[in-house]
């Protein structure tokens, strides 16, 4: 038996449970995290008492980890300080990019400074608006019955990223936080509406395509601010009145 000190990725990795319903699953998920060396448990809008006796019983030696869980009203808030969020799904969804095998995104996770793994509610899994906040989605390959128990999914996905063998350097990438990126996407969406690039009907689909493209860029925080500088300049120009040949020039300074 080997038990090394937690790797840098294990120390920085957050496991996010979205709206779990069963205390026993939350406790078992905490245990799985401790087994794999992770410790940052985040729960979004729990539908039960996460410190219920069933949860504590299933956590066994992970009671402290369970008690130190942080509770958030929304997924967006739970991900705000993360620089990578990885969704998990049992299903392949026709309208979203195909989920990948966890081994294919191991490098991405290990290079991140503050990654998050996001797990869905027991009955429904993550909804599309949750998965849209994740840059990549992974699926554990299974037999025909694809829906794993929540805590077992936590165990397997954490294993892939934390104990699976790999020589990818850890923490070698510095990218913008999800808070920076979400603010930038909000700004981009407002600008698209302002200039009539998209409308309320097509907006969601349009943003999904743009998010996928810009998330692939793994922007730094400074680059996300530079992009927003361009958007501010567009708004300013539009407000000057379109078609007018303006001699006045106001250039947004690049940070
Ligand atoms: N019925 C739901 C499954 C919910 S299981 C569905 O079809 O999507 C609860 C959670 O466990 C899922 O949201 C996901 O986070 C995780 N999970 C279950 N099976 C998985 C699998 N095969 N691969 C990756 N994650 C899985």
Account of the protein in words:
This protein folds into two domains: 8-163, 3-Layer(aba) Sandwich (Alpha/beta knot); 178-239, Orthogonal Bundle (Helicase, Ruva Protein, domain 3). Helix content is 43%, strand content 10%. It contains eleven helices and six strands. The protein has helices at 8-12, 23-36, 53-59, 63-67, 75-79, 106-111, 128-131, 150-163, 178-194, 203-216, 221-239; strands at residues 14-18, 40-44, 70-72, 84-88, 115-119, 136-138. The chain has a six-stranded parallel sheet. The longest helix is centred in the C-terminal third of the chain and has 19 residues, at 221-239. The protein is globular, with a radius of gyration of 21 Å. The N and C termini lie far apart (51 Å). S-adenosyl-L-homocysteine binds at residues 88-91, 119-120, 122, 124-126, 139-140, 142, 146-148, 150, 153. Keywords: Cytoplasm, Methyltransferase, S-adenosyl-L-methionine, Transferase, tRNA processing.
List the helices and strands and how they pair.
Layout: H1 8-12, E1 14-18, H2 23-36, E2 40-44, H3 53-59, H4 63-67, E3 70-72, H5 75-79, E4 84-88, H6 106-111, E5 115-119, H7 128-131, E6 136-138, H8 150-163, H9 178-194, H10 203-216, H11 221-239
Helix pairs in contact: 2-3, 2-8, 9-10, 9-11
Bound molecules: S-adenosyl-L-homocysteine (SAH).
S-adenosyl-L-homocysteine binds next to α8.
The top level CATH class name of the largest domain: Alpha Beta
Order of helices and strands: HEHEHHEHEHEHEHHHH
What is the count of DSSP helices, taking H or I runs of 4+ residues?
11
| Structural class by secondary-structure content | alpha/beta
Instruction: List the bound ligands.
Output: S-adenosyl-L-homocysteine
Rounded radius of gyration (Å): 21 Å
Kindly state the percentage of residues in helix: 40-55%
* Average predicted local confidence, pLDDT: 92
EC number: 2.1.1.200
Subunit structure: Homodimer.
Organism: Deinococcus radiodurans (strain ATCC 13939 / DSM 20539 / JCM 16871 / CCUG 27074 / LMG 4051 / NBRC 15346 / NCIMB 9279 / VKM B-1422 / R1)
GO cellular component, one term: cytosol
């Amino acid at each position: 038996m080997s038990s090394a000190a937690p790797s840098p990725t294990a120390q920085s990795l957050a496991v996010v449970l979205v709206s779990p319903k069963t205390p026993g699953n939350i406790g078992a998920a905490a245990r799985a995290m401790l087994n794999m060396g992770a410790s940052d448990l985040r729960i979004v809008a729990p539908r039960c008492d996460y410190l219920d006796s069933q949860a504590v019983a299933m956590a066994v030696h992970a009671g402290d980890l369970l008690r130190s869980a942080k509770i958030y009203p929304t997924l967006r808030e739970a991900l705000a300080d993360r620089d990578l969020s990885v969704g998990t799904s049992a299903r392949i969804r026709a309208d979203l990019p195909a989920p990948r095998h966890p081994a294919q995104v191991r490098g991405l996770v290990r290079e991140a400074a503050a990654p998050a793994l996001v797990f869905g509610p027991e009955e429904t899994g993550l909804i599309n608006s949750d998965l849209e906040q994740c840059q990549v989605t992974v699926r554990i390959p299974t037999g025909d019955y694809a829906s794993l128990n929540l805590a077992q999914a936590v165990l397997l996905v954490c294993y892939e990223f934390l104990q699976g063998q790999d020589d990818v350097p850890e923490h070698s990438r510095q990218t913008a936080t999800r808070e920076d990126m979400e603010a930038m996407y909000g700004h981009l969406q407002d600008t698209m509406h302002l200039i009539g690039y998209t409308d309320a009907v097509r907006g969601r689909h349009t943003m999904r395509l743009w998010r996928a493209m810009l998330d692939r860029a793994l922007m730094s925080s400074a680059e996300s601010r530079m992009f927003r500088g361009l958007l501010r300049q567009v708004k300013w120009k539009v407000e000057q009145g379109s078609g007018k040949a303006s001699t006045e020039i106001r250039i947004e300074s690049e940070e």
